[in-house]
Design a protein that fits this description.
Layout (H helix, E strand, L loop, with lengths): L8 E5 L7 H11 L3 E6 L2 H11 L6 E4 L5 H15 L4 E4 L18 H22 L7 E7 L11 H22 L3 E8 L13 H11 L8 H12 L10 E4 L9
Parallel strand pairs: 1-2, 1-4, 2-3, 4-5, 5-6, 6-7
The chain binds nicotinamide-adenine-dinucleotide and ligand 0WE.
Length: 256
């Protein structure tokens, strides 16, 4: 079958817990037959992430802070040793200092802007560059974005600016890596209650209004994002690169 990922090796960044979008995509890739390397950010998340990752038969867990070049280099050296070739890379990582999502946008700090762009945007370039030499047969790079890149979502603030840069980065990487048969795409997911979304004040109201306005009249399920990840990883999407694919129950098409 075209969505069969048997014989393919995938690395997934961004599993914090069982609610993580990265975890849903990882499970989808695993069920489609891919061999998985899954990374988590740091010691703080190690216990929970490792328990989860090692529950997937054949999956291996590695620590990698994507704001650290040495950790990225070390990870990919290990992946080369362990897997040889790589076919799929999933980047499901974002961070801005908490205050930046609370304060007025005009008060965005230089350091908050830097950190948000370093962790949420530059890291995609860094991991794509490190993965490319291992993608000898071509490959698929997938990242996660959000509607706040295009339209103002109150309090999303500098993350919206970072997601706009991320979506543009997807296009530039797609052009650059196309000659090596590496595709690069983003999934724009509707709001989902994950660790990164919890603690956002007004999230419940947002989910409610999203469900009311979306053509499908409901919120997106994280496994629908996982399934789209599997599609973008597989040969079923072989003609698609540089795109942003919406998995938002149609919310983004509405004008009123
Ligand atoms: P999550 O908290 O489960 O995942 C975010 C991940 O980023 C965590 O695993 C965290 O450890 C990791 N991370 C942060 N800084 C890092 C660093 N320096 N190095 C390595 N990893 C780091 O939340 P999520 O909602 O699954 O978020 C995953 C992606 O999906 C993000 O890019 C987010 O912007 C995007 N997204 C989320 C939603 C939503 O509503 N939840 C909607 C659209 C897009
Ligand atoms: O991309 C995101 C969240 C990204 C995020 C979340 C946090 C919370 C904890 C980045 N950095 C941090 N830093 C922290 O300290 N989403 C798409 C989810 C999200 O976040 C929002 C949203 C939605 C939706 C923030 C404000 C408004 C809506």
């Amino acid at each position: 079958m075209s969505s069969d990922l048997a014989g393919r090796n995938a690395v997934v960044f961004g599993v914090a817990n069982k609610r993580s979008i990265a975890w849903s995509i990882a499970q989808g890739l695993h069920n489609a037959g891919a061999k998985l390397a899954i990374t988590y950010q740091n010691e703080r998340l190690e216990q929970e992430a490792k328990d989860l990752i090692l529950s997937l038969p054949g999956a291996e867990a590695f620590m990698c802070d994507v704001s650290n070049d040495a950790e990225i280099d070390r990870l990919f050296a290990t992946l080369k040793e362990r897997y040889g070739k790589l076919h799929v890379l999933v980047h499901s990582v974002a961070f801005a200092p908490a205050d930046e999502l609370k304060n007025d946008f005009v008060n965005t700090t230089r350091e908050g802007f830097r950190v948000a762009h370093d962790v949420s945007v530059y890291s995609l370039i860094a991991v794509a560059r490190a993965a490319a030499p291992l993608m000898e047969d071509g490959g698929s790079v997938i990242t996660m974005t959000y509607y706040g890149a295009e339209k103002v979502v109150p309090h999303y603030n500098v993350m919206g600016v970072a997601k706009a840069a991320l979506e543009c980065t997807v296009r530039y990487l797609a052009q650059d890596l196309g000659k090596r048969k590496i595709r690069v795409n983003a999934i724009s997911a509707g709001p989902i209650k994950t660790l990164a979304a919890r603690g956002i004040s007004g999230l419940s109201d947002m989910l409610k209004s999203h469900a009311e306005r979306a053509p499908l009249q409901r919120n997106v399920d994280v496994n629908e994002v996982g399934a789209t990840g599997v599609f973008l990883a597989s040969d079923a999407s072989s003609g698609i690169t540089g795109e942003v694919i919406y998995v938002d129950c149609g919310y983004n098409i509405m004008g009123f």
